[in-house]
Amino acid sequence: MRRNIAILVFDDVEVLDFAGPFEVFAVADELRGHADFNVFTVAPGPGPVRARNGLCVVPDHTTTSCPPVQVLVVPGGFGTRALIRDLVTVEWIQRTAKSAEVTLSVCTGALLLAKAGLLDGLRVTTHHDLLALLGEMAPTAVVDPAARFRDNGRIVTSAGISAGIDASLHLVGRILGEGAASAVATYMEYGPGR
To answer: Is 130 helix (H, G, I), strand (E, B) or coil?
Structure first.
């Protein structure tokens, strides 16, 4: 089965938070003959998204046109602060995560998962500067300040920015096997976390 990998993008999203996982899943698919993953971006609304430091991204879908999702990636960045108040998008994250095989947050994307009520009782992590806020937003979760990422089965959270690459490689290994994850890391010449 070819899995849809939806990567949420929004204004002020941290570039590596979404681009790192995009590259990991897309390379995994490419190395295996485009048989495993359909990787695409999805945004709360139509039109271009302005990521951190001015990068302009044209999303493939909006949350209303998004096809069924098997893996949802929720990145972070300063834009999460405004998105937390966007209840339509938070509800979309909640619904999509409930039907997806796995949801991965990168950095402060964990705050959006907390707002959606998806972290209750789980061991979680996020960017080191926002660990306390995550604990406030998900008071029944156990926040792990030392973890690069935490795998809770259907919910995976990762620490800041580049940790999303580690968590994505972990998920490729979980879904396709460690050999596939190692092949992606080798192709990307990526060492940390492997």
So the answer is: helix
24: in domain: yes
Give the pLDDT confidence of 65-111 residue by residue, as tens digits. Answer: 999 999 999 999 999 999 999 999 999 999 999 999 999 999 999 99
Q: Which two tokens stand for residue 15?
A: 């570039």
The string of pLDDT tens digits covering residues 142-177 is 999 999 999 999 999 999 999 999 999 999 999 999
- d(Cα 115, Cα 110) in Å, to the nearest integer? 9
pTM of the predicted model, to two decimals? 0.96
In the chain, what is the straight-line distance between the N-terminal and C-terminal CA atoms, in Å?
26
- The residue range of the domain holding 95 is 3-100+112-118+162-187
Per the annotation, the verdict on 56 as an active-site residue is: no
CA-CA distance, 191 to 51, in Å (whole number)?
A: 26
Given the residues 73, 107, 181, 185, select the one marked as catalytic.
107
The CATH number of residue 78's host domain is 3.40.50.880
User: Is residue 130 within 8 Å of residue 111, measured between CB atoms?
Assistant: yes
Sign of CA dihedral 59, 60, 62, 66: negative
